Amino acid sequence: MATLADVARRAGVSPATASRIISGSTKLVTDELRARVLRAVDELQYVPNAHAQLLARAQRTAVGVIVHDVSDPYFAEITRGLQQVATTHGRLVIICNSYRDPARELEYVELLRAQQVAAIVLAGSGYHDAAFTKALKAKLAAYTRTGGRVSVIGRHELPGDAVMPANEEGGYLAGCELFGSGHRRVGVIAGPKVLTTTTDRLAGLRRAAREFRGTVPARRVAYAGFDRDGGAEAITALLDSSPDLTAVVALNDQMAVGALSTLRARGIAVPDQISLIGFDDMPIARDVTPPLTTVRLPLAEMGARAMSMALDDTHSPDTPRIEPAQATLVRRESTRSLPA
């Protein structure tokens, strides 16, 4: 097992300097020196003793949050919950926008580790990308070995505590609402294929379709960006390829709003001609015309729970916790049953 002296030799610094950097001392050192020591820690897989980890955590005052885009209402709600808990604990929150760029997420983890934050919360969806996941695991492992804590929101193959939104179950609820109301020609406005959120919500929708002896064929699924413009783009593709649709599920509310605008521009009445369901229950879902039927997730609560777990020093990181966040269907005026 590597010792502090081994780390100091590998980094070319004194043991005292290595100890100060690993413990998160407030004494100023250059970024280059800190990087050398942390790199040595990573390469040697050095694990500080329990006293050193406690000291490091006690001196850290900031927490890092990596989101896909904090201007997205989904992440804005999650961040609101994260910040409320962090403020209660007297912590400064450093928010990093990855814009769904895996390389940028890796860079932010490295940056936050260098800043010696007390915890890192990954609030964005997981990726179907084995190489990225392996690289991210390695960086998070190096961070936790120096006393940092990690929590995630969503389905990730990563170490740390997790808040798990019921994305598959939410897709199932949306599917039951439509297929159970007589719809058979159902289109889907989906987010990027690489995101676990997309595949989980779509899987739940298809599970419901099977129960009602329906299908969601690939030709009726349009993938686009998880935003308003993506929704407008996707509904256009669906209408052009499948003009006989009677219902559409958008896998988030922003996409549903974009779809609603395009349907209105084409003179297609919602829900008289096409029923429309969203996902997440953003505040705007109540304000559009017609008000949007959607699947609700407790977004602010999810953020609060993720931050609470990340700051809970009483729980051992060796036994990660998974806390579910339930989905519920909210019926409004954008859907209707078909005549029997």
From TrEMBL:
Q: Which GO terms describe its molecular function?
A: DNA binding
Concerning InterPro entries, the annotation shows: HTH_LacI, LacI/GalR-like_sensor, Lambda_DNA-bd_dom_sf, Peripla_BP_I
| Transmembrane stretches, start-end | none
Under the heading Gene3D superfamilies, the entry gives:
3.40.50.2300, lambda repressor-like DNA-binding domains
User: Keywords of this protein's UniProt record, alphabetized?
Assistant: DNA-binding, Transcription, Transcription regulation
Which superkingdom does the taxonomy of this entry point to? Bacteria
Oxidoreductase as UniProt keyword = no
Pinpoint the HTH lacI-type domain residues: 2-57
- What this protein is called in its record is LacI family DNA-binding transcriptional regulator
- Lineage of origin: Bacteria, Bacillati, Actinomycetota, Actinomycetes, Micromonosporales
